Amino acid sequence: MPQAQPQSPAQRTAGMTPAPLPARRGLGARSLVLLACGVLAMTGCRSNPADGEVAFARKFSGPIGMADEAKNAVVKSQEEWRALWAAGGPGRVAPPVELDWSKSMLIAVALGSRPSGGFSVMIEKVTREGSRLFVTARETRPAPDSMQTTMVTAPFDCVELPRFEGRVVFTVE
Question: Among 168, 160, 115, 110, which residue's Cα sits nearest to residue 139?
Answer without folding.
Answer: 110
